[in-house]
Amino acid sequence: MGGRIAELVLTLGLATFAAGAAAQVSFSRTFIRNVPVDSSFAGPQTIALADLTDDRRADIIVVDNEDNRIAVYLNNGSGAFPGSPSNTFGTGTGPIAVVTADFNTDGFLDAATANEADGEITVQLGDGSGNFNTPRDYLVDPSPVGLVAADLNNDLLPDLAVVSSDTVYLLKNDDDGIFSDFVPASVRTLCSDSVAIAAGRFDNNANQDLAVACSADGQVSILLGNGDGTFRAAQLTNAGDGPGALVVSELTQTNQRDIAVVQVDNFGDENVSLLLGSGDGTFNFSTTTSGVDSTTITSADFNLDGSKDLAVTNIGESFQIAILLNTPNANDNGFLYLPTVPGTSLGADALGLAIQSGFIDGDEYPDLVALGEAENEGLVSVLINTSGNTPTPTVTRTSTVTPTPVPQPPPPDDDGCSIRAESVSTAGSAVLLVGALVLWLRRRTLSTCASPPRRRHER
Prior knowledge:
By secondary structure, the protein is mostly beta strands. It is built from no helices and 33 strands. Strands 1, 2, 23, 24, 25, 26, 27, 28, 29 and 30 form a ten-stranded antiparallel sheet that branches. The chain has a four-stranded antiparallel sheet with strand order 3-4-5-6, with no helix packed on it. A hairpin with a 4-residue loop joins strand 4 (59-64) and strand 5 (69-73).
């Protein structure tokens, strides 16, 4: 399948409302890149959004499991991308997840991939032009499925946490982007079949904590950090049926970090689990309806109302994206389901592999990039948030209409999830496990701010 750019510009206005005033969320698909998928489901695994050229525009990284590489698509500055990769860079064998951070503190984003086949982590340092230098490999475990970058010992350097089965392996950044094992070098999750990992501060201190989705047990394992690279014993919290991809975000405006988890164990399950943080490392469980059989998830404030929303991809007859607008007075636990955005049709048995949010075209509205596949066909789809292009009516006492101000360049995200973020979970951002009743038995991991992780199994 050859690469191509399709200027389809399919604009879909998604109407919602809050506090008596009308608001709009709309996206325009401006880029589709076909990517090959072979009969063993090798090929694209996940994606990351990261500003690799320091121009405040997100570029795209695609993890290619078949060719053992990452492919970089550089943003031309206006949100357009080339029809073929700008550059490709080798990894270890069987890359399945990617995360970006400034590992050597030179001001440019670097990349790390988890390689399932050889059990290694490949770290590549960026030079600010979209290129990466000679990679270094670090052995962790025979089959890592995801990783996240976070400062685990409060030295202002992003470290790495790598999840595999029931264990998280901890790599300490020794400066200059060189890593060694923490002591101890790993921590147990106390649950089995771990498929996704994310980082956040869950107990109101300055230390980074970890959350791991365990699909077989219906649990999320919470590992509270001590600030020195060690962790307290894992605490398990209910996450519904077959938790898969997860994202850390502030969903309730309480200044606490919450966790949203897609449920992928049962075919047709359209629920997203909401783990609402209490501020002490514990969570309250509830669910909301995604409207589609969700597989991967990301979070951003898509309509700039000050509340973090959710976006999910699906498994089903076509590749779709659903927006869950954070609306406190909505009936479905504070989220309003909006009509789906077509990622584009992939025919029967389509599968969303990954979704990421970031600033692509230079305005302040978060955009989306999604990765999907069906049989031997896959694609990367870029969806530009056009909500700021149409004036949003504001109801006043005199019924006058006030247009929305002209968007300005995006400020840094207060959750550390801007495209310059140093702490992002694995591609991290989208993990997937489809249960035995589903046609897919595969696993992958999602990043919070950059990219998702994955482990593929045969259908």
